[in-house]
Amino acid sequence: MPAAALLPLAPSPPHPNQRLHLSRCGASRRGFTVHTAIAIASASAAAAAAEAPPSPSPPPSPQAQTPPSKQGGSPVLGGIANTRSWSQYYGSGFSIRVPPSFDDILEPEDYNAGMTYYGDKVKPRAYAARFASPDRNELISVVIKPSNQLKITFLEAKDITDLGTLKEASKIFVPAGAKVFSARTIKVKDEEDIRTYYFYEFGLDKQHVALMATVNSGKTYIAGATAPETKWGDDGVKLRSAAVSLSVS
């Protein structure tokens, strides 16, 4: 099950020859912007107009409105950090923001996976990206799977809704027995269209997981951030923000 692959698996220390391919860039397309509109009414008064009928009172200013960020109109998530200053990792068809001090722990064999040598069978890549906190207790992972491996179909999945509704797809992304804290559908405007993402946050085996998933060209991209439940209170916003920063192209 894809979600199980995102749980901690005792990662090894970084390989001495590995380099973290990160670059800083501008604002994320996933900035949750609050648009505030305040109407201001002005009334004119003249000292000589004491006998004139009073001008009608200006209409009250409407309250600031926060546009809904998910279906239903309620806030998307409990807490999201501004990740503009974070480094951005570019992988095969995706990018993700990486919190400061996190290390690239992708194993050397994972870098070579997916390549063929003289007709040898392609070795599947376990992770497309993998990062860990200095103490290795907090992990951020990206997994890419052919969508037809997650749901049997003869058609190429073009949108995550092809895998089912948010509730139906939870059977794919959330392990059995997990306690689900949150599930959301998030729509993000890309260059050409509006892309749909599914977000799940759940607990399993004393681990807390924030998971973001979407589909593009028959492939399912899954970003997961995990940490022990005892550390989620302090670092949950940071980890959730990393998972939500997943973007595909």
TrEMBL record:
What Gene Ontology molecular-function terms does this entry list?
Answer: calcium ion binding
Q: What processes in GO biological process is this protein linked to?
A: photosynthesis
What InterPro entries does this protein map onto?
A: Mog1/PsbP_a/b/a-sand, PsbP_C
Ranges that cross the membrane = none
List each copy of the PsbP C-terminal domain by range.
Answer: 139-248
According to the record, the residues making up region (Disordered) are 49-78
Name the Gene3D superfamilies on file.
Answer: Mog1/PsbP, alpha/beta/alpha sandwich
What does the entry list under GO cellular component? chloroplast; extrinsic component of membrane; photosystem II oxygen evolving complex
Q: Name one Pfam family in it.
A: PsbP
Q: Compositional bias (Pro residues) spans?
A: 53-62
Which protein are we looking at?
PsbP C-terminal domain-containing protein
In which organism is this protein found? Digitaria exilis
